[in-house]
Amino acid sequence: MAFFLYFCAVKLIIDIGNTVAKLVAFEGDEPLEEVKTSNETLEGLQMFVSKYSFQRGIVGSVRDLSAQVRQSLASLPFPVLEFTPDTPIPIHNRYRTPRSLGADRLAAAIGGTVLKPGKDLLIIDAGTCITYEVVDARGNYWGGNIAPGMQMRLHALHEYTARLPLVSPDGEVPGIGYDTETAIRSGILRGMKYEIEGYIRSMIAKFPHLLVFLTGGDGINFDNTIKNIIFADKYIVPRGLNKILDYNYGQ
Predict the structure, then answer these.
(1) 19 and 142 belong to one structural domain
(2) Among 41, 104, 116, 167, which residue carries the largest CB count within 10 Å?
(3) Position 225 in a domain
(4) Residues 66 and 94 both lie in one domain
(5) Tens digit of pLDDT for each residue in 110-167?
(6) Would 250 be classed as within a structural domain?
(7) Which among 15, 86, 104, 125 is annotated as catalytic?
């Protein structure tokens, strides 16, 4: 009976990012549903919680939790673990400044090991920022790199110049821009593609059997030689938080 209850237990995973918060219901190791809500108020939390019989939850955030968020979490009828630098994790954190490490970055690294345990991994999250996380086959997290994301690059070109317009990422992306709009769009989108491919190739030189997880950047058209080792998974951060939750409950 205990075995049955464990795999039917529904858990609430809260991933608070720089732009939005994601609420994900997990059953065992698999996501059931995801909704997005305000990262300042979690205004959709009560409605989401009413849909499932949650037994426990976890919150990971890249920003300080507001008083309103803390009040909402405290009012839930089940315990919610706050993921902090002091929370036990199922991999070895070799980062030299662990207290400055974003919760999303570490959770993404752990999420990769859930899907491909015992492998050398590069986890790329192309969101507000593009983050690159490296985990070796022995479960050592070594850190990674942080770069501006697509919207940040688009806005920076507009805001830090006198005449360049704010360009939408939707539209033609020629190899050579034929006007200012396509020059900006191609420069940013193709630049991101070449940057990501460069990181992957540099990591393959160190880890020949490297596997790559990509989240938040499914629309990038990578070279075939690289595409074969890339796995797209939009739940990579929630998977990591879910694993941390289970690890702290002894499961």
Answers:
(1) no
(2) 104
(3) yes
(4) no
(5) 999 999 999 999 999 998 999 999 999 999 999 999 999 999 999 999 999 999 999 9
(6) no
(7) 104
